[in-house]
Amino acid sequence: MENVSDEEFDAALEEALGILPVGIADHLDNIALFVDDDPPADMPGLLGLYEGTPLTERGAGWEFQLPDAVFLYKSSLIAYARDLEELRDEIAITIVHEIAHHHGIDDEKLHEWGWG
Length: 116
Prior knowledge:
Blueprint: H1 6-18, E1 31-36, E2 48-51, E3 68-73, H2 74-80, H3 84-102, H4 107-113
Parallel strand pairs: 1-3
Antiparallel strand pairs: 2-3
Helix pairs in contact: 1-3
Organism: Sediminivirga luteola
Protein name: Zn-dependent protease with MMP-like domain
Pfam family, one: Zincin_1
C-alpha cells in the first residue's frame, strides 16, 4: 500500500485502539506508545518494538521507574498492509504483540496463539 497520509495513519491507529481485544487497554498502564516513521536501521521491516523490563523480570523495589515503551513503525506497517482496513488490523495486532512482551510472553508463544 502506498501514499497513506499522516491523517489516514492516525485514523487507522485510533480505530486500532478501539478494536483491541477486551481488557488489553487495561494493560497499557505505565506503557508509553510511540509512532516512529521507520524502524531502526539494523531491523528493517520491523512492525513494532517493546522496550523495557518485562513484568516477569521485575523484583522488589521496582517503584519509580520510567514507563516502558511500545514503538510502532509507520513505514513498515504501511508496507505490510494491502489497504487501510488491514493497516488498522495490523496496528492492533502489533500493539497486542508488544504488550504481551511487557508481560513476559515470547515470540514463540505469540505465534502459537496467532499474535505473531
